[in-house]
Write the structure tokens for this entry.
Amino acid sequence: MAEVFEESFKHPNNSPDRTAAITERQDFLLRHNLAMWDVLASCEITGATNCLPSTSPANAQWSKDKLIKEYKNIISCYQSS
């Protein structure tokens, strides 16, 4: 999401100062009026050939760059209204 808003974080996800990293991300979310929810870090699907939460071919079509571009379009619509 930081890339969508053309920002970066001072503290990486694996920062030894976890409190500062978490606070930095909370401030980012509040500043941009964003809500987040928990997602799977890993999973095990019986009978699946991989360990993806969703094996939908539609999800595989979206590269990170394409997602960022589309999210920027969506956000700009909300910011201009």
